[in-house]
Amino acid sequence: MSSPRPRILDPHAVPVVGTDAHLPAVDAARLTPEALRQRFGLPEDWQPEIPGDAGHASRELRPASVLVPLVQRPEGLKVLLTQRTAHLHDHAGQISFPGGRVEENDADAVATALREAEEEVGLPPQVVDVIGRLPQYTTVTQYVVTPVVALVQPHFSLRLDAFEVAEAFEVPLSFLMTPAYHQRHEFHWEGGRRQFLSMPWEAPGPDGQPRRYFIWGATAAMLRNLYGFLSR
């Protein structure tokens, strides 16, 4: 019986074994609000490149949902991301989409994503226009996550939940949809081998100083699945 795959505590220390620069970036014409609405409006049965990274099979799977917010800026669509606070039990300090576990009163995955986005960063549902979903992704912490993709009007002011969210920031969708910026990491342990993607983004932080935002793990995997969907 193989050893349970370990959690990655310091992803920065895991070696980069390559990038996907051989793959084309999604054409800019496909990254407009109109093109995205049309793409998500097409019924299609497709398999995501990265379905998940499940950990211990003995643990019960828990349903969750995240919002993939595409903010409509004049210079192009940007993805709103958060950095989780360091004290949280799951995925502490990681960069993620707004989201969380499904609660009993949530009507569906969309309701969960909208509720969580409003609770975590103060994003009002009135500025959010859901255009589709991506296939579910199973995390190493045993969450079955439904990514809900939405266009977001740019006229909003964020209000961060200081307990869960350390920071919110935006990354151009065009950058994230360019595989040349997708780094592949790999490490080995006694039970086998594990790989993951990262998409490091450099931009000024809240203090105006240059900062490197390390997007990796489940967030990077779901963005990679979005790339695969938009590339078809």
Describe the structure.
It is a single chain. The protein is α+β, with helices and mostly antiparallel strands and 232 residues long. The protein has four helices and 13 strands. The protein has one domain: Nucleoside Triphosphate Pyrophosphohydrolase, CATH 3.90.79. The protein has helices at 33-40, 109-121, 173-176, 217-231; strands at residues 16-19, 62-73, 76-84, 95-96, 99-101, 128-133, 137-138, 143-152, 165-172, 183-189, 192-198, 201-204, 210-213. Strands 2, 3, 4, 5, 6, 7, 8 and 9 form an eight-stranded mixed sheet that branches. Strands 1-10-11 form a three-stranded antiparallel sheet. The protein is globular, with a radius of gyration of 17 Å.
Distance from N terminus to C terminus (CA atoms, Å) equals 38 Å
Reading the helices and strands in chain order gives EHEEEEHEEEEHEEEEH
- Specify the number of helices: 4
Task: Give the C-level CATH assignment.
Answer: Alpha Beta
Please state the CA-atom Rg, rounded to the nearest Å: 17 Å
Give keywords.
eight-stranded mixed beta sheet, Nucleoside Triphosphate Pyrophosphohydrolase, alpha+beta, 232 residues, three-stranded antiparallel beta sheet
What's a concise summary of this model?
This protein has four helices and 13 strands. By secondary structure, it is α+β, with helices and mostly antiparallel strands.
